[in-house]
């Protein structure tokens, strides 16, 4: 086994879900942050909700989250199982399924809904997904909203050395492959699968905050204690190298990003820099300035 000469990122800690709750009537989530109070260590990421896996009985009335607003950040939804339909007040709509990603930049404000896709809901099935909230810097919080549907077929899949597994590049770059997601600030987002006994080394940009969420399996990262399903391994900012060693067949979401380092003010679906801006966001939503769904 070759030993890397690149400085490794030390491990800050391994965290279990800090809370669990139902979002709407269709997304049973376990939250890793902000419930674990990791703000500075995961900046620019604001939230990680792990939905499912849970089986839903067939229904003629799709479950999910009805009309609700967002301002000041981006939502990133990654689907492992199931079908999720999106519709927003900016005129965007799409359906994402296994391996697909939805990247919505709410920015100055949109109203949207996220529901189980209608035909999938009628058949019933297992839902498994992750939603991230990604902060926007002050200069971009009131920019024009945008929406990206990123299909599995458009995400580069890179085979790891020695048949250890594979890595899908959703955002950023890996071994010269660039992910299709357009990000406002520098972000690396990878879907990593490592076979039992396999090893994967990731070299990440200088100064980024890096975390690894275990979707399934059992892994050690840079010599850490083993982490299992629904646990989050948070690295310290210094260093570049992250080495994943799989005890079992494992799947992880790697999230790494350049910290924004600005004040954060939150109120429900709004994330701004101060309370005055939060009040304005609420007033704008009530006044219909973020639009409504037909």
Mean pLDDT: 96
Shape by Cα distribution: globular
Distance between the termini: 59 Å
How many separate helices? 3
The helix-strand sequence is: EEEHEEEEEEEHEEEEEEEEEEEEEEEEH
Low-confidence segments, given as residue ranges, are none
* Cα Rg: 19 Å
Reading side by side through the largest sheet, how are the strands ordered?
1-22-19-24-17-14-13
Major pleated sheet: 7 strands, antiparallel
Q: Helix/strand-derived class?
A: mainly beta
> How many beta-strand segments?
26
Assign a percent range to the helix content: under 10%
Summarize the structure.
With 294 residues, the chain is mainly beta. 7% of the residues lie in helices and 50% in strands. It has helices at 39-42, 118-123, 275-286; strands at residues 11-15, 19-23, 27-33, 45-56, 64-70, 73-81, 84-88, 93-96, 101-105, 110-116, 125-135, 146-150, 157-159, 165-171, 173-174, 177-178, 187-194, 199-203, 209-216, 218-221, 227-228, 232-235, 241-246, 250-257, 265-267, 270-272.
SSE map:
Elements (H helix, E strand, L loop, with lengths): L10 E5 L3 E5 L3 E7 L5 H4 L2 E12 L7 E7 L2 E9 L2 E5 L4 E4 L4 E5 L4 E7 L1 H6 L1 E11 L10 E5 L6 E3 L5 E7 L1 E2 L2 E2 L8 E8 L4 E5 L5 E8 L1 E4 L5 E2 L3 E4 L5 E6 L3 E8 L7 E3 L2 E3 L2 H12 L8
Antiparallel strand pairs: 1-22, 2-3, 3-4, 4-11, 5-10, 6-9, 6-11, 7-8, 7-10, 9-12, 13-14, 14-17, 15-16, 17-24, 18-23, 19-22, 19-24, 20-21, 20-23, 25-26
Can you walk through the features of this model?
The chain is mostly beta strands. 7% of the residues lie in helices and 50% in strands. The strands form six sheets. Strands 1-22-19-24-17-14-13 form a seven-stranded antiparallel β-sheet, with no helix packed on it. Strand 20 and strand 21 form a beta hairpin. It is globular, with a radius of gyration of 19 Å. The termini are far apart. The mean pLDDT is 96.
